[in-house]
Every structure is written in C-alpha cells, then in structure tokens.
Amino acid sequence: MSEFHVSIGEVHSFSKTFAGITGDLAPNHVNQAMMEQTSYGARIAHGALIVGYMSTASSLVIGANDGSDETAVSLGYDKIRFLAPVYFGDTVTVTYRIDLIDIDRRRSEADIRVTNQRDELVAVARHILKWVPNRR
User: Fold this and answer.
1) With left for phi above 0 and alpha for psi between -120 and 50, is residue 23 left, alpha or beta?
2) Which residues touch 90 (CB under 8 Å, ≥6 apart)?
3) Cβ(77)–Cβ(57) under 8 Å?
4) pLDDT above 90: residue 89
5) Which 3 state secondary structure label does DSSP give 108?
6) Are strands 70-82 and 121-133 parallel, antiparallel or unpaired?
7) What percentage of the chain has pLDDT greater than the value 70?
8) Domains, the chain, with CATH or none
C-alpha cells in the first residue's frame, strides 16, 4: 500500500460535450443574435459549468474511498482562468494531474488543464484536496 491516497504524476481525464445551462441567463450564454455581433461570434458556455467539470475530474481522482480511514474534501480552486471561449457543441476534456502531496498536512494539489476538441487550452486552475479522518 502506498504512503498516501494519490501519487505525484497521477493523471485522470474527463470529457463532456457542452449542453444545458447553469441558470446564469446573461446574454453571452443565451442570446445568439447579440453574440453574433461580438468577436466571439456565438453564445459561450458558462465558466461555472467548466469549474463543475473540474470538480468531476477531482471526484474521479479520489474514487469512492471505500474502506479508507480518510475522506477527501475540496479546499477550493485557485488561479482559475478562462483562456478561450467554449461554445455550444464543443467537447471539453479536463485533465487533472496531482503534482504535490503534503503528507503532514494531509493535502494534495493538482494542476488542471481544460482543452476543447481542437486541443486548444480553454481554462486552467489549481485544486487543493484535504484528507480528513473518518469517525470510528
């Protein structure tokens, strides 16, 4: 058994085709005619939706935690940046790579990169997980 729940260099990916909305009815998400007049040329996806996909990738990393004496909880996302638009019909792939483990503090950190179907980088972030003890 390893010394920690995840390993440096461990990588998981998650892909999703954009569909639906988050409830944010800003014109850039719902008004096609208006967005056709902008440099984007079409409606764009919600940033909150992309962050939700980042959370899905995090869940894939930690798995079910079955039988573990600890549970992973998110401490948050740092340095989230939306680098390029995500359009309706795009497929995004979230790559979540563990790159730091602090055994003493029971934390792991990951680099997150989100690309579209053309392999263009559309978003980045850092994520911190805290591993908390389960009650016995």
Assistant:
1) left
2) 17, 18, 45, 116, 117
3) no
4) no
5) strand
6) antiparallel
7) 88
8) 11-133 (3.10.129.10)
Residues 54 and 94 sit within 8 Å (Cβ to Cβ) = yes
pTM: 0.80
Q: How far is it, in rounded angstroms, from Cα 57 to Cα 126?
A: 12
- The phi and psi torsions of 103 (rounded to 5 degrees) equal -65, -40
Minimal CA–CA distance to 78: which of 124, 21, 9, 133?
124
| pLDDT score, position 17 | 45
3-state secondary structure at position 40? coil
Q: Which two structure tokens, joined as six digits, stand for 39?
A: 């440099």
Q: Are 44 and 27 in contact (CB under 8 A)?
A: no
CB neighbourhood size of 36 (10 A): 11
Q: Which of 54-63, 102-111, 115-124 has the lowest average pLDDT?
A: 54-63
| Pair of tokens at residue 29 | 């998400």
pLDDT tens for each residue of 42-76: 989 888 889 999 999 999 888 765 667 888 999 99
Contact criterion met (CB below 8 Å) for 94 and 58: no
Neighbours of 100 (CB within 10 A): 12
